[in-house]
Structures are given as structure tokens and as C-alpha cells.
Batch of 2 targets.
Target 1
Amino acid sequence: MTNVWLEGAIALIIGLIPCGIVAFRGDSMNRLVGLEAATVVVVMAMMLLAEGYHRNFLFDLALMLALLSFGGGMVFARFLERWL
Amino acid sequence: MERVIHILMYAGVATALFSTVGVLVMRNVNDRLHYLGPPGTLSIVLIAAAIVLQEGASQFGTKAIVCALIVFVSNPVLTHATARAARVRQFGRWSEPEDQRKKAS
């Protein structure tokens, strides 16, 4: 029996490839955009993995990633605006 | 009901995948930033809705809602901050015109 949640998670993980390409090429602003896109995709993939494997701690990881990526992204944006 | 859950989940995943391709294909930062919107608002809500419909008002459902809420609120703010940083890097800091500053004071 196939698990649709895991299928969705695998599709999202494949969707990280374009984000990775953007994050590894171009100037620093383009890299930041790639990183932000990848973060949102990873949060969704973690949610689907949590549902697929029925593991509660994976939801906690997704939650923490969503919270911390906001702070990290803001710091990156501020640094790129002012000093880098 | 199961069909609705699958449709919601796959719609969220498809939106996110199309957006990642858009991020890759676009040429500059401002164009790419437009493609951060759909996964951070539409996809995450669709996926959270699918999980809530599957699990009901359980711990899983609540955590999915909280997760979606955090991304839904923080992603536009982050996108705005990135766009602002890109603009400042490209054109430098901008200041208010002199006449508007006098009116404000």
C-alpha cells in the first residue's frame, strides 16, 4: 500500500533541486532567495513526513525550522542590506 | 473524504513544485521573489488543511495549523525584507524628499 504523504514528501524533496541550483549560483541576493524558497519547501516536506510516518517529533522539527528560518532570513537580509 | 484530502495535499505539493521551478527560471531577484509567495501562503495552507482533515482535532492537526500559521505570517515579511535589501544594494539608501520632510515637521 502506497503512502500518499510520503509520495508528496518525496516530490517536495525533488523540488529542492531547483532551489539548490539557485542557492549555489549567482550573487548573494539570488542565493538568499534560493535559501528562503528551500526553507519553505523543507518545512512542508517535514510536515508530510511527520504525517506519513506518524511521528510527532517531526512536526516539532518543522515548527522549529519555520520559526528559526524567519530569524535567520531576517538577519541575512539585514546584513546584505547594510554591510555585505 | 479521502479523495478530498489527497486533492488538497497534491494541490499543495504541485503549487510548491511549480514555484520552485519559477524561482529557478526567473532572471533577477525581484522576479524570483514573486515565486516565494505561493509556497508560503497557498501550499502550506493546503497541506495543513489536508493534515487537519486526516487527523481531526488531535495534536498532529494542531501542530500543522500552528506550523502553517507561522509560515503564513513570516514568509511575506521575509520576502519584503529581502526585496528591500535587494533594492538598497542596487540603488543605495533612499531619503525622503526635502518638501515632504518639512511638511511632516
Target 2
Amino acid sequence: MSLFSAQGLALRFGGVHAIRDVSFTVEQGEVFAIIGPNGAGKTSVFNVITRVFDPSAGSVVFDGVEITRVPRHRVVHHGIARTFQNIELFEGATVLDNLMLGCHRFADESFLGQCLWTPKVRETEARLRAHVEDVIDLLDLAPHRNTLVTGLSYGVRKVVELGRALATRPRLLLLDEPASGLNPEETRDLAFWIDDIRTDLGVTVIMVEHDMSLVSEVADRVLCMHLGEALSTGTAAEVQSDPRVVAAYLGG
Amino acid sequence: MRFDYDTSYRDGKRLLRYPSQKWTYAGLLLLLVAVPWLLPKYYVGELTYLFILSIASMGLMVLSGYTGQVSLGHSAFVAVGAYAHAWFLTQGLPFLPSILLATGVSALVGLALGLPAIRVSGLYLAMVTLAFAILIEHVLGRWKSVTGGFNGMPVNDPVLFGMDLSGLKPFYFLCLTCLVIVLLLLVNLTRGKTGRAFVGVRDSEAAAASLGIWVAGTKVLAFVVSAAVTGFAGALLAHHVRHITPEGFNLLLSLELVLMVKLGGLGSLRGAIMGAFLIGLVPPFISQIKPLLGDRIAQQFGLEIFFFGLILAVFVLFEPKGLNGRWLKLKAFFQTFPLYRKDVFKRGKSYMKSERYR
């Protein structure tokens, strides 16, 4: 039994087929990459998994739970976290508060307790902070801890968003183009982090990525999509040499 | 120069971290307690009114500043709080249960408005809340058996534990106490989990939902809290004006509240209070300078609105972050003296954000 499986997934907006009949499975501890030309439906797959859209058909099962029946804000409680293609950070808040928001699902204080700032609330805040500090250590974010997101460069924002997803303590991490807009050096760091996340934290990773050097380096298996359909699955080398994939990218 | 040096995770959440802060706030509180004996009666009354405005302004700040939902109809919540309180008092309820019930009624009305209103945002939300305010004003005008119609209704004096608090000094202290309590409750709410969720919903609904924040629920909660606090301020205002009429809660009051949170600096309770003082002081200021303006200008109708517009224009041009932004800059200047650079607060680049899914 795989940790994650999508079966016969389809997503239609009227006559537009964003995804048609896509199926794939991801094993525990795997780094799984989804590649494909623009408009292939990669991000749509993520949006279906995180319940932004209801699929027109098909099912998504994660650890025995049918995710397509879970409300959108409860998905993270099952251990699925994501990042966004165009960074979706909370710009008016500090890096620390962004990461603390990642821990939102572990905070269970009552409304009245929060208003009165009871000892329990103080204790919870300190506990979440300690957890956030682990993420800050892992991703070297200490210099930016109290900076507002508006004051950060693009590369750091990408890392903060990764950190925020990690702060939810996910078992499955969905990374939407984590390397877009990063320079080669930052991409190298990212490759190491993804490896750390998989090896040390035991988090399974699905990522959408265009940078093939990063994909070949970290991904165990690759799925190539084109016009909403799954073209080919296999190791990075296998997929890259598939004639249908070459045709999808270069035409022909 | 001062360096932040936290020695425990709790340090970062402490409200007053340095002895200087403790002394400053203690001094401020002492000064406010001494005011009734230091200033002429007129100013004590004005200051009481400013305290009430500050509470209402903080109520709107929760909604507009923290969750980013614009409301042009907050005068309606002030009115609901005022009328509910006045009515409960005429039914023979003591002051404390009455004001708490009025707060509850206002919160319920906030829930009733919030449930449909969260479906829209931005300009459309402004229209919905505006329509709501007009609706409430008319309901209050026509529901004669309860509200006394457009003639208004008198408000019984506040009596707490057998003490009549309607006098100038007792009422001043009542409002000051209420302001401090509401401020503390809201400060606690906004520095914890719920406050972060509010800001999260404001800055990115997509990300907030992916982190387990129930976006719709959080928005409605902001509406309810905001309505409750504003209604509470309305109940105090009823005692201040002693005779309430629907016209006392018209569109101009809503606009003043919006100006308070905008000019004070969105996303800060300190800003809400500063903004309330700035806007609340405009009418007395105008009446002070009227003799200097000459008859032709002084007789003009709508001088207040002209001044509101002027202040808004000046702030939008020179200090978009409002009074609180200016305060933070001044503070940074002194704390980092002599290293402060003009660019420290320069707004960073805002990278493209997708609005495709909300």
C-alpha cells in the first residue's frame, strides 16, 4: 500500500480540461517530481490535493484517508503541507510570525483564554516557539527572524515559505516550483535541504519543478505531464529520454 | 542604542520589556488619573469622549486593520450598542448586566452581518456594510415603540454598585477603566494565535487555508469581535450624549471611524487610539480657531469634513503608514541613534502574488 495515491484524477472548468485521468502513487520517504511544459496541469494537481478545487472525477488517498472529502482547512491536519508557485507569505508579518502561523494547527487555546493571556496560553506560545526555532536552525533563518517579509529578498522569501510548510510538521510536503527565481547557489542549498527533509525528518516530498538539474539530483521518480495528461513516469533519465516527453517540450 | 536580547521565548511576547517602558506607561497612567484635577472641565469631558472613540476605533481596527475587511458601516454597531444599552436600562436592568448584554446584542448583529458579508471583499464589502448602516439607521428611526423614533430616547444615568457615575469625574474614570480593559483584552487576542490568524487571512487567504486556518470562520470571528467592541463603545457613548437619536449615528460617524484606523495606521491598536485622538480633536480644534478665520469662512457649512479631507490627503502623501508608522520611525531614530538611516522603513519590494485562488 503506497503512502499516497491519486487515481483517475480529472479537473474540468467548463470545456477546459486542466487534468484528465491522471494516476500516480508515491511511496513513503520518496521524492517525487512532476515536470511538464507550462499549462500541463501540474499546479492543478497540487490544488486538487490541497482541496482548492474539487476534482471532477477520481480520488486522492493519503495514508488511508480519502482527501477529496476533507474540508480545505483540515487537509493540513492529515499531514499535508504545501508551498506556492508565486510566494504566498504573510507580508505584513515578521518571519517569526509567518513560521508561528505554520504551527497554527497545534494551538488549541480557548478564545477567552487568549483574551486573558492565561498561563496555558503562555506555555503553548513558548512550546510553539521552541518548535519554530528548530525550523529556523534547519534553514539558517536566524538573521531574518524579526524582519518583516516585505523587507526580504526573493530567495529568502522562498526559504521562509519552505520553513512555514515545515513548521506544520507535515508527512507529505508539496513544493510548487521551489527553485524558480533562485540563483544556482541557492538552488544547491535547496537540493541539500530537500535531501535533509526526506532523510532526517522522514517527510515524503512531491515537487513541481522546471530545473532539471535539481530534479535529477533529488527526485527518485519523475512524472511528466502534458496538456493535463500523464505522459510518462520513471527515473529522471528515463523520462528525459522518452520520445513523447521530448515531443511535448520541443514539438514534433 | 538598545539591542533586543531575549533570554527566553517568553521575552519576545512580553508587553513591557524594558524598565523604561514600564516607567513611561506608569507615568502616562498616573497623568491620566490626575487629569480631572489638572484640566478645566471642558477638556475632561472632551478627553472622556476621546476614550470612547478610541474603544470604537479599536473595534474597527480588529476588522479593517487586522483582517483587512473594510467596513463603512461601523456607526451601525455603535448605534446598536447605544440603543440596546439604553433600552435595557429602561427595563430596569443594572448598569453592568445591561452594558454586557448590549455588547452581546451588538456581537449578534455583527454575526448576522458577518455571515453574508464575508462572501465579498474590498469595494463590495464596503458597499454591503454601508447599506447595512443605512438600514440600521432607518430601523432605529421607525421602531418607535422601542427607540422613540427620530425624537430619540433619554438614557438613564449609569449607577454601579449604588454609586452614580454620571458626574464628570466618575464618568471619566469609568471610560478610562473601560479603555484600559478593552485595550488589554485586544492586545492579548492579537498577540496570540487568533491575532496571527487574522493577519494571515488578511495577507493571503490561500496560504492561511493551507495552514489549517478556517478562513470563513476567522473572518466572521473578526466581525463578531469588532461589532462587540464597537457596540460596547456605543453603550458608553449613550451615557456621554445622554439623549440618543438615530441622526447621532449617521454616515459621518462611520467615516470618522474609518479615518481613525487609516490615519492611525492599519494593523496596530496603538494606531487606533492615536487616530481616534487625531480625528476626535478636529471639531474642538475648529471651534477654537473659528474666531481667527474671519466670518466668511467660519460661517461655512462642513468645515469639519474639509479638515478631515485635508488631513487624509496629507497623510496619504507623506505618511501612508499613519501615526503609528511615524511613531515607530521616531522610536527607531532614538533607539539606534546615531545610526538611523532614512531607508530603514523604506517599503520593500512586493513580488507578484497570485489572486487566482482565494
